[in-house]
Amino acid sequence: MMHEPQTLTPATETKMTARDVKVFYGDKQAIKGVSIDVDMDHVTAFIGPSGCGKSTFLRTLNRMNDTVASARVEGAITLDGEDIYAPSMDVVQLRARVGMVFQKPNPFPKSIYENIAYGPRIHGLAAGKADLDVIVEKSLRRAGLWDEVKDRLHDSGTALSGGQQQRLCIGRAIAVEPEVILMDEPCSALDPIATAKIEELIHELRGRYAIVIVTHNMQQAARVSQRTAFFHLGELVEYGVTSDIFTNPRQERTKDYITGRYG
Amino acid sequence: MMHEPQTLTPATETKMTARDVKVFYGDKQAIKGVSIDVDMDHVTAFIGPSGCGKSTFLRTLNRMNDTVASARVEGAITLDGEDIYAPSMDVVQLRARVGMVFQKPNPFPKSIYENIAYGPRIHGLAAGKADLDVIVEKSLRRAGLWDEVKDRLHDSGTALSGGQQQRLCIGRAIAVEPEVILMDEPCSALDPIATAKIEELIHELRGRYAIVIVTHNMQQAARVSQRTAFFHLGELVEYGVTSDIFTNPRQERTKDYITGRYG
Amino acid sequence: MTGPAIFLLLAGLGAIAWVSARARALRLQTVARASGRRDAVHSLPGYHGWYVALWTLIPAGIFLAIWANVAPGLVTQTVLADPAAQSLPADAFSRSALLGEARNIASGAQAAAFNPAAQALVEPYRAAIREYGIIGVVLALVLAFAGGAYAFTRVRPDFRARTRVERLVMATLLIASLLAIVTTLGIVVSLLWESIRFFSMVNPIDFLFGTKWSPQSAALGYGNKDAFGAVPLFWGTIFIGAIIAMIVAIPLGLMSAIYLTQYARPQVRKWMKPILEVLAGVPTVVYGYFAALTIAPALRDFAVAIGIHGASSESALAAGLVMGVMIIPFVSSMADDSIAAVPQSMRDGSLAMGATTSETIRKVLIPAALPGVVGGVLLAVSRAIGETMIVVMAAGLAANLTLNPFASVTTVTTQIVQLLTGDQEFDSAKTLAAFALGLVLFIVTLLLNIVALRVVKKYREAYE
Amino acid sequence: MTVERLPTDWKSDAMQKRIARRYAAERRFKFAGLFAVALSAAFLAFLLFTMLGNGLRGFTRTEIALQVDFPASPLLLDPANITDQGLAGANLPMVTSEAAKKALGPDADALIAPTAWTAVRNAIKADPRILGRTETVRLPASTAIDLAAKSKGTPEAEAAVARLKQQGVLSTGFNMGFLTGSDGTDPTQVGIWGAFKGSLLTMLVTLLLSFPVGVATALYLEEYARKNWMTDIIEVSINNLAAVPSIIFGLLGLSIFLNFLHLPRSAALVGGMTLALMTMPVIVIAGRNAIKSVPPSIRDAALGIGASPVQVVFQHVLPLALPGILTGTIIGMARALGETAPLLMIGMRAFIATPPGGISDPATVLPVQIFLWSDEVSKGFVEKTSAAIIVLLIFLLAMNGLAIYLRNKFEKRW
Amino acid sequence: GDQGAGGGAGATRDQIRAVGSSTVYPFATAVAELFVQGNPGMKSPIVESTGTGGGMKLFCAGVGAQYPDIADASRRMKKAEFEMCQQNGVKEIVEIQVGVDGLAFAESKKGPGFKLTPRIVYEALAANPYGKGPNKTQSWKDVDPSLPAIPISVFGPPSTSGTRDSLAELILEKGCQSDEAMKALKEKNEDEYKATCTRIREDGKYVDSGENDNLIVQKLGANPNALGIFGFSFLEENKDTLKDVPINGVEATYETVSSGQYPGARPLYIYVKKAHMQAVPGLQAYLNAFAANWDPDGVLTKRGMVASPEDVRKASGEAVKSLPTLDGAALK
Lengths: 263, 263, 464, 414, 332
Ligand SMILES: Nc1ncnc2c1ncn2[C@@H]1O[C@H](COP(=O)(O)OP(=O)(O)OP(=O)(O)O)[C@@H](O)[C@H]1O
Ligand SMILES: Nc1ncnc2c1ncn2[C@@H]1O[C@H](COP(=O)(O)OP(=O)(O)OP(=O)(O)O)[C@@H](O)[C@H]1O
Ligand SMILES: [Mg+2]
Ligand SMILES: [Mg+2]
Ligand SMILES: O=P([O-])([O-])[O-]
Description:
The complex is a heteropentamer, with two copies of chain A, one copy of chain C, one copy of chain D and one copy of chain E. Chain A has helices spanning 54-60, 91-97, 112-123, 129-142, 146-149, 162-174, 192-205, 218-224, 242-247, 252-258; strands at 14-25, 28-39, 43-47, 71-79, 82-83, 98-101, 180-184, 210-214, 227-232, 235-241. Chain A is of the alpha/beta class. In chain A, the strands form two sheets. Chain A has a six-stranded mixed β-sheet with strand order 6-7-8-3-9-10, with helices on both faces. Chain A has a four-stranded antiparallel β-sheet with strand order 2-1-4-5, covered by helices on one side. In chain A, a hairpin with a 2-residue loop joins strand 9 and strand 10 (235-241). Chain A is globular, with a radius of gyration of 18 Å. Chain A starts with 13 loop residues before the first strand and ends in a 5-residue tail after the last helix. Chain C is mainly alpha-helical. Helix content of chain C is 77%, strand content 0%. Chain C has helices at 3-34, 45-81, 92-106, 116-153, 161-201, 204-209, 215-219, 231-263, 266-281, 284-305, 316-341, 344-352, 357-386, 389-394, 412-420, 429-462. Chain E is an alpha/beta fold. Chain E has 15 helices and nine strands. Chain E is globular, with a radius of gyration of 21 Å. The two termini of chain E are 38 Å apart. At the C-D interface, helix 5, helix 8, helix 9, helix 10 and helix 13 of C face helix 1, helix 9, helix 10, helix 11 and helix 12 of D. Bound molecules: adenosine-5'-triphosphate (2 copies), magnesium ion (2 copies) and phosphate ion (PO4). Phosphate ion (PO4) binds next to helix 6 of chain E. Chains A, B: One of its GO terms (cellular component) is membrane. Chains A, B: Keywords: ATP-binding, Nucleotide-binding, Phosphate transport, Transport. Chains A, B: InterPro entries: AAA+_ATPase, ABC_transporter-like_ATP-bd, ABC_transporter-like_CS, P-loop_NTPase, PstB-like. Chains A, B: One of its GO terms (molecular function) is ATP binding.
C-alpha cells in the first residue's frame, strides 16, 4: 500500500490533496488508504477495473459520499490547504467550488436556461436578471453549447441529445465558477461523435480548472489526461504522468490491466 | 450489408447456420441481415460496441427471443441442417440442445445439486436417483467445480462466489448434454481470477461443443476464441479467424473499434 | 351415494388413471430411448399421467355438475307421482315447503319434521334420491372410464402430453382472468339496467343539473320533477372528498412522504411507515363512529364558541377531516413512489451543485415528481368520493348547497345507502335513484382513475 | 464575449448570511415534515386511545349476587329430567324476579338485567343438584346499574349502586359473554361471537374465491398474456375494479346475486362473493408486483435449459413470488374484513340473535355489528360498540402486522 | 338455511323473517330474543328495520320463502298496501296490535322549555302552510309570540317511515285543520289537502334524520335549541339528557300515551302472512311470545313500549290464537 503521496513535477500548483484516505460502506472497505495530489491546470484520469473504487474516491473529493448513509470517510482531504472534512467547512459551498459531472447526463427536467441558472440562483451569484443572462450565456459558451441552443434556451434540457445534455451538465457545473471539476465517466453513455466533442471540451477547460476524470476507456485516458492514477481493489496502484503510465508502467498489475489481462 | 455467409476454412464441421437473419423489436430493427456459420469444436466470439446487437443475435440461436413479446425474427437458422424456427421444432428440446449461459450468474435459489439436476429432471434424462447423481457429478466435474463443492452439494447455489456461480450455470447447461453452448458476456461480472478460471474452462469444453461467446473484452476474445465476428449497429461487419481480425482487420470500422477509437 | 363419497370415488379413479398411464409411458419411453433418438420421447411420464387423469375426471365431473342440477327435479317428479303426494296442499308455497322439508329429512340435512305431513313423503324421497343417485354414479363412472380409456390409448413416447396438459393449465388461467371482465360487465349491467328505468321516470337533465334533492316529496306523490336534482349531492361529495379531505391529506401526506424518504433515519422510517399505514387499515366504520361521536361534537362546540351560525353536529368538516386523515397514507405512498421514481441522478445533480436537501426537494424533486403526485392525488380523490361509511355516519342527510364547512351536507354514497337501506321503497324512482347515483359515482371514479393512471404511467415512462 | 467575473468570495459576510438563511429554511422544511408525520401518528394514537378508553369497560360487566331458595320457589321443573325445553318452560323469569325482589327490594327488576334469568338457567344446567338447596347465583346487573357501577350513571342508579355495594352483593368481572354471545337487545347480554363467526364465514368464502382466481389472473397477465385487445381489456378491468368504490360492489351484489340469481339475502355466501369481487383485483395487483419482482434471470435460466413456460412459472416463479402474493392477499383480506358499506346493501344488517351455522345462513359481520350498535338507543351500547371496535382492530392490526412481517422476512433483493 | 330452488321442491326456511318499522324493531327483536331463549334449538328470527313503508313493500311482494313472514308497522296498513298484497297473492293477512307508541317531542334538558300545539307544529314545519305560499318563518317566535326567538331546528323522521306518517296524521293534519278552509279542501280535493297539510318544508329547518334515532338524541344533547321528534321509547331511554315537550299541555308519559290522552299516541301492529304459518317453523311460537310479553308488566314495556288498553290486548291475544283474516274494507 502506498501512503506516501505520489507527487509529480514540482512545477505544478497543487489544488487538492488526499492523505491516507479510507472509505467504508458499512463494514466494507472500498478505499484502502489512498494519497494523491490533484494539480491545477491539469486533467487527472482515474482508471481501473469495475468496482475498484474510482467513483467512490472521486466522490470523497466533493463530499458527495455524505449522501450515502452507510459511507464513512477517514483520512485528510484538502482544497487549497483547507480540510474539506473539517466541521467549519460548509458542504454546500464546497460543492459549488468542486463541481461534478456524472456518468449519465442528468439535466434537470427544466428549461436549458433554468438548468444553468439553477446553481447561480441558489448560491446568490447573480445580482439580477441581466446578470443571470450573462452567466448563462458565458457558461453555455464555455461548455461549447451556446451556438447550438441559443435560440431555444427555454426548451426543456431533457429534449437535447445525449452529448448536448452532457455538455449542458458541464455548463451547469461551470456556472457557479468552480475551482475543480470532477467527471465520472462522462462519455460512457455517449456515441463516438459526442464523445469526441466532450474530449475536446475537456481540453479547452483544462487551463482554467483542475479536472479529474474517471474513465473505463484507456484510450480516452491517454487522449485527454496529463496525469493517470490506476486503482485496483480500492488501492491506488500507480500514479504518474499519463504517457509514462501507458508506455512504461512500473507495476505489474498496471501493465496487466493496460494490456487487457483483466477488467 | 453482407448477406453472403462468411464461411471459413472448409475443414471444419458446421453446426449452426444463419442466413440473412433480421430481428425487430417492434418497429425497431436490431439485427440487419446477418449470415454466419457456427463451427463445431470451435469457440466463436461476438464482439462490438454496446447495443450493436450481439446479445440479440445470440438469443436468436436458441429462440430465447421468443420470450420477448415485441421481438420478431426473419431469415433462416438451422441446427444440424434443421430449421429451428420451423413449426415442428419443439422449442423446449431446442433449448436443451443449445444451452445458454448469461452475463450475470443466475443459479436458481435452490441447492447446488438441484441446480444441476433440474434440466435432466424436466427432460427425463435420468432413470433414477443413482443415475441423477452420476449426471450431477459428471456435470460439475466438467464445469471444474466438483472439487470445490462436492462436500456441500445441498447448500444453496446462491451462496457460492460469483465465479463459482457462473461455473455452476455452465455445469447446469452441460447437464442436459447440449450440442451448442451460447455464452453472453459470461465473465463481465467476475473478478480477474474467476475470469481466468472460466476462460480455462472454455478451452477445455471446446472439443466437445460448439461454443459461441459474446464479450466486451477484446483481449478475452483474442485469448479464448478461434473465430471472431465483429458487429456494429446491427450489422455483421467482419467475421474471420480471430488472429486475422485482431492483427489484420479488413474493415476500417473493425480497426477503429479494436484500437479503442469508440465503444 | 353422498357427495363426498362420489368425490372420493372419482379422485381414486383419477389417481389410478394417473399411476397406470405414467407407468405405461415410462415403459414405452425406456424402450424408445434405447433407440437413441433424442426426440423419440417427448413428455415426461408424469404428463402422460395427468393427461389420462384429466380425461378421466373432467368429463365425469362436468356430467356430475349438470346432474346435480337436473336430478332434484327428476326426484321431485318421481315423488309427486307417488300416492303419498296426493295429499299435498294446493298452495304452492306450503307445498314446496313440505316437499323441501321431506327432502331435507331424506337427505339428512334435517333431523325431524316440523310438519307431520312431510313425514309421509320422506320414504318416497329417500327411494327416489337413492335411485337417481345410482343412475348418476353409474353414468359418471361410464364417462370416466370412457374418457380414461380414450386417453390411455394415446399414450406413446412421442405423444405431446405435456403440451396438452399445459394448454389446459393456460386455459384455466385465461378463464380466471376473464372473471375481471365479467365483474366489470356485471357492475355496468346492474347499474345501467336500473338507471335506465330511473331515467325513464326522471329526466336525466333534471337529475344531473337540478339543485333540489328531496326524494321524500317524490315518495309522497308530488312528482319526480323537483325531487331528484343531484347537484347538492355532487357538491357535498366534492366538498367533503375533494376539498376538505384533500386540504388535510395532501400537505400531511406529501410532507410525511418527504420526511420519511428524505430525512428520517432508516430506523425511524422502518417504524413510522407501517404505523402511518395503519391509518389506511382502520375500517371506515370505525372512522365513522369516531367522526360522529368524538370529532363532530367537538367541532360543533368549537364553531358555536367562535360564533359560527348554522353549525351542525353532522358537519362536512368532521367527515372531511377524518376522511383526510384516512387518506394520508394513500397520498404519502403515492408521493413516495413518485419521488422515488425521480432518478437518483437528479438528486445527485442538484446536491453536487451545492443545493441543500430542502432546495433539492422543492426545486428539483417535487417539480420532477409533480405529474406522479398529481396522479396520486387524483386517485386519492377518487377514493375519497367513493368512501361511504364515514359520510353515512358523520356527514348527515341534509342536501345543502353550502360553503359552510360546519353545516351539514350529504353525499352520493350516503344517499345510496339511505335509499337502499332503512326506509326504502322498492321499485319507486326513489330506490332506482340509488342506482343512478351509483352509475354516476362509477363513471366519475372510473374517469378519475383512468386519467390518474395515464398520468402516472406516462410519468414513469419518462424516466425509464 | 462577455465580461470576466471575479472568483466568488465564498467567505464574504453577505455569503455567510445567505448560507445561514438557507440553513434556516432547511431546518424549517425538515421540521414541517416531522410535524406532518407526528400529527398523523398523533391522530392515530388519539383514535386508539379514545376507543380503548371507551371500549375496555365493554369487556367487563357488573353482577349482583342473589340468593335463590330453589326448593321454596314455584319452579315447574322435574329435577330428575332437566332438558332445554323443560328449562324454557320452567317459569324461571318469574322465579328470578321474585327472588330478586325478596333480596333487593321491590325495585329489583330495575336492578337486574331483563335477561338475568338465563344466568339462573345456566346455573341449574351446570349443576341440577342446586335445585335442592339455596344457592347464590351471580346475575348480570341492568344497564343503568352497570353504567353507574363502572362510570357515571343517573342519580337513581348511583344511589342503587351505593346501596348494593353496601349490601356487598355487587361485583365487576370480565364479561365472558361478550366474547361468546351474539347480538341482542340488552347491552349487558350482547356478544360479538355471532358477528365474528359471520365475519369468519364471509372471509372464508372471500378467500376461497378470490385467492385462486386472483393468483391465476396475475400469473396469466404477468407471464403469458400477449399484448392484445383482450389482455388490454382485462388489465383495464382489473385496475378499475381495484378503484371502484366498495359501495358499487354492494349494488352489484344486490342486483345480481340477490335480485337476479336469488341467492339467500343476508347470507355470508353472498357477502363473501361480493367481497371476493372486491378483493380479487387487490390480489391480482399485489400478485403481479410479486411476480414482477422475481428477477427475469431466473426465468431466463429455466427457459435456457429447456423448461416449458408452465414449468418455469409453477416450478420457479410462483414459489418465489408466493410470499409477496400472500402479503397482498392478507392486506386485501384485511380490507375486506373491515368493509361495511357493500354488506349493508345485501342485507347483512339484520338482527340475528344466534350465530350463523353455515355460509347460507343469515349473518352479520363485525363492522356491520359495530354500525348497528352505534345506532342503538340504549347507552350501554356505546361501550359495547367501542369494545367491538377494539376486537376488530386487534384482528386487523394482527393481519397487517403479519403482512409486514412477511414482507420484511421475505423481501429479497436479487 | 335456504336451499337451492332446484326442481319443483321449493326453498324452505327455518328462520322467521320480519321486516318493517324502526319503531317496532326494538320490540320485535326483544321478542325474537325471548323466542330463542324459550325455544332452545330454534334459530333466531331475523328482524330487519326497513321502515314501515319499506317493510310493507317487501311483505306484500309475495308468498314464499324469499318473502318475509311478518311486517312490523308503526301505523295501520294502508288500503293501497293491502291491495298490493292481494295482487301479489298475499291473500290472508293477520293484523295484530302489539302495543302503543307515543310520537314524542323532546328537547335537551338545557332547552328553553317549548310548549307546543299541533297548530304551532304545523305552522313551523309545513312547506306551504294553509296553501298560502312557502313557509317563511325563521324562529319559533315568528310562529307564535308565546315562544322564544330561537331559530326553528327540528330533527325528525324521514318520509316512508311510519313515524313520519304518524306525524302527518296525528299532528300536522290536526294543526292544519285549525283552518276551516282546509277542512273544506279535504272534502273537495283530497290530494291537494294532503299536499298542503302534510308536506314538510325542505329549507333545512326540518332535518330528515334517517334511521339513526340515536344520533338525534345525541344531537339534541349537543344543541339545546333544537327539537326532536321520535318514538316514545327513545325519550324514556334518554330521560337523563332529554325532556319532554308537552303538546296541548299534555306530557308524553306512560299513562297519557296508554290512555290515548296524549295527542301523539298511535298503535303499533304486526302483520302476519297466514300462508306462512304452516311453512315456517316457529312462527306461531313467535306470535305467542309477543302475546306473552305485551302486558303492562311484560318485558316489552320495560323496553319502552306502552301496553295497549286491556280490551285491545285481549282482542289481540284472541287474534294470535285464531288468526282472523284482515278485511281490506276496514282500511283507509
Ligand atoms: N452505496 C454503496 N454501498 C455499498 N457499497 C458500495 C456503494 N457504492 C459502491 N460500493 C462498493 O464499493 C466498491 C467501489 O465501488 P465504485 O463504484 O467506487 O467502483 P468504480 O471503480 O467506480 O466502478 P465502476 O467502474 O463500475 O463505476 C465496489 O465494491 C462497490 O460495490
Ligand atoms: N427487449 C428489447 N426491446 C426493445 N429493444 C431492445 C430489446 N433488447 C435490446 N434492444 C435493443 O436492440 C439493440 C441491440 O441490443 P443488444 O442487447 O443485442 O446489444 P448488445 O450488443 O448485446 O449490447 P451490450 O453490449 O450492451 O449487451 C439495442 O439498441 C437495444 O436497445
Ligand atoms: Mg464508477
Ligand atoms: Mg448484450
Ligand atoms: O320506522 P317507522 O316506525 O318510523 O316506520
